[in-house]
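USER:
Working in pairs, take the chain set out below, taking as long as you need, and write a paragraph about the fold.
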Amino acid sequence: MNLLFIHSSSDLYGSDKSLFRTIKTLSDNGHVCHVILPKAGPLADKLKCIDCRVIIWEIAIIRRQLIRGWGLLHIVFTWFIAEIKIGLLIKENNIQIVHINTTAVINGQISSFFLRRVVLQHVREITIKPVFLARLLASFNGLLSTEILAVSEAVKSHLSDIAPKYKNKITVIANGIKPQPIGKPTMTRSEFSRRYRFPNNTVVIGCVGRLHYWKGQDYLIESISVLGDIGLDYCLLIAGDVYPGYEYYEEKIKNDIIKYNLSKNVKLLGFIENIPAFLNNIDLLVLPSTLPDPLPGVILEAMAAKLPVIATNHGGATEMVIPEKTGLLISKDDPGNFAAALKRLLKNAKLRTLMGEEGYRHYCNKYTIDIYESNISAIFSAYSV
C-alpha cells in the first residue's frame, strides 16, 4: 500500500522515535511510505536511510502560544495552502492510508476525509487546557478520523470523557522499543563522570525530556532543594533542550538552580543524542511531569535499561510503573514527598537493583518492539484492499 504520514517535528524525542519505528515496520513489510515534516532534522535523516520519501513542507501545527492574533491568522493561512498540497499529493501517489502523528497536526484530515481515504489519527497527548481547544481537537479528530490510535488507556479515557460521541473509534496501541536499545558504543562510568564533571562514586539521578513547564523540571529541582544532606554524593543530570517558544522556562530552571544553591548537584546537559549510553550510566530515572504524560517513552527506555523509576502519579506512568515493584509514584504537587522518594532510592542500592530487574520483566511482558510491531501492523492490515 501507499501510505502517507504527517508529523509536527523532525527531532528525535518520544513521538518522533515512535513514528520512526512505525514507518520502519511498515516499510519492512513492503509498504511505500511518504512522510511530510515541517523542517529538516535528525528524524528526516533517519527516514531517508530506510528509503522513505521525506517531504519538507510548512504545515499547520497547533501551539498554544500561537493561537491568538497574527499567530492564529498564520495558522489558518498555512493550513489552507498545505491542505491543497496534501490533497494533490494523495491523488498523485494513490495514497490509501493517511496517518497523522499527534493532535498538534491539523493538516491532512479534511483532504483525506473528502478523498475517502482511511485516516488514522495517532493521539500521543493528553490536552487539558485550554478546555475549548481540547474539546475542539477531540471532536475534530473524532469526526474526520477512521480510527483513533491512543498510546495508553489514560489517553483513551481522556478522549472518551471530552468527546464521548467518538469513543468507539479509539484503539489503544502502546508504544514499544527494542529490548536492548542500540546507540553509539556505551561509554564507561569513568568516561561518563569525566564528561559531566562529577566524582565517579556519585549516585546519579537522570531526567530526560524537553524543557517545558508541564514536564516539571522546576518541580524536580524544588524537590532536590529539600533533600538536604543525605550522607552520600549525588547529582541530577537533566537531559533535553528547550521547546521552541519556551526559552523563558530554561531561564527559570537556571535561576532556580542558583536560587537553591544546587550548581554542584544539578547539571543541564541540553539535547543528548546517545540516550542508551546516558541511561546505562545513571542509577535511577525520574519523570516529574506536572500534567499527565500520555505514555512516557523514556520510562520504556529506563525499564529496558533495568532502571528504577520515580514518576508523578498520573497519565500513562500509572500504567507503566508498578508501585513498590518497579519504582515509585508520587503526587505532582508534593516536593517533600518526591524528595523522600529520591532519598529512599538514593540510599538503597539493593532496592534500586531489585526494582530495575522487575521493571525489565514488566517491559518484556508488555512493551517490547515485537509487541508494538504486531499491533500496529494489524491496524494497517485491517484497511488493506
